[in-house]
Design a protein that fits this description.
single chain; 288 residues; alpha/beta; 12 strands; 36% helix; binds 2'-monophosphoadenosine-5'-diphosphate
């Protein structure tokens, strides 16, 4: 009698979790690759993290994704971090090795790969404006440093957070210039005619409103080849991307980062190429 391989369990933990598109995307990948595995959404509150890990170990879970708000709070419960996760200070992918949990971060590489795949990566030395200074911003700043951009202006409502990020990233990447700016447009002292990319890493746009800040942006002074990127992927056409499109700029949606960070997570768990096309189709279908 041949012994059947056990079904592998994977999943995503977050609070809330019902909105996550990862189960649709990852289950499509498992199906396409004929893997006997299931990817389950788990609603886990912060105080339940240790219990979840205990349970996951007892079930011999292969691994899981981590989303808001646990990307940083999961770290003390893990046994080891990859250098990238350590550098970013956040974990979005966990894999079990025996009884140990290893934390990875595929967000920065996911963002970079999505720009490259869509031929929208800024050239070395580029001037970039980034809105936001939260957890998601850190992965984007890492991706931009890897792309060897020249100068990043970080605009944030709480300017102290932008200053802290600018200082920290300058220490790690002395060849890149970082300037922190407050939210008020009167203080936006970047030269707009040199800006090659504008990126929103804040949660503005999740609800499809909040157009005021984007209307204040000096679009008319931007070079026509500038690219506008939004990490928000629902709605796919966020207020920022709508305004940018109408102004004639190329846009980059957050869906690409979601896809590529998921594909890289799949590759961490299964050590084989992820079925990108099938995963992308699943994402587009679940957004309809
Ligand atoms: P995430 O991990 O998703 O990045 P976060 O760390 O809470 O979440 O960061 C959210 C980002 O969106 C921050 O830059 C936040 O600005 P503050 O640092 O000033 O809080 C920004 N943000 C959220 N709501 C906002 C709003 N209504 N106006 C401007 N910025 C907002």
């Amino acid at each position: 009698m041949t012994r059947q391989k056990p079904i592998q369990i994977l999943g995503v933990i977050g609070d809330p979790i019902h909105h996550s598109l990862s189960p649709a995307m990852q289950n499509r990948a498992l199906h396409t690759k004929h893997l006997s595995a299931a990817y389950i959404p788990f609603h886990v509150q912060e105080k339940q993290l240790p219990d979840f890990l205990k349970w996951a170990l007892s079930q011999k879970m292969t691994g899981f994704n981590v989303t808001i708000p646990h990307k940083e709070t999961i770290i003390p419960f893990l046994d080891r971090l990859t250098p990238m996760a350590k550098k970013i200070g956040a974990v979005n992918t966990v894999i079990r090795r025996g009884s140990r949990w290893i934390g990875h971060n595929t967000d920065a590489d996911g963002y970079r790969l999505s720009l490259i795949e869509e031929k929208k990566a800024p050239p070395p030395g580029a001037h970039i404006v980034v809105f936001g200074a939260g957890g998601a911003t850190r992965a984007i700043l890492h991706a931009l440093a890897d792309l060897k951009v020249g100068h990043i202006w970080i605009i944030n409502r709480t300017v102290e957070k932008a200053q802290k990020l600018a200082k920290e990233f300058l220490r790690q990447n002395p060849k890149v210039k970082y300037t922190a700016l407050p939210w008020e447009k009167e203080a936006w002292e970047f030269p707009p005619e040199t800006i090659q990319m504008v990126i929103n890493t804040t949660s503005l746009g999740l609800k499809g409103k909040d157009k005021k800040i984007w209307k204040a942006f000096p679009w008319k002074k931007l070079p026509p080849k500038a690219i506008v990127s939004d990490l928000v992927y629902r709605p796919q056409w966020t207020p920022l991307l709508m305004i940018a499109k109408h102004a004639g700029f190329r846009t980059h949606s957050g869906l690409g980062m979601l896809l590529h960070q998921g594909a890289l997570a799949f590759e961490v768990w299964f050590r084989q190429k992820a079925p990108l096309k099938a995963m992308k189709r699943a994402l587009i279908e679940s957004l309809k």
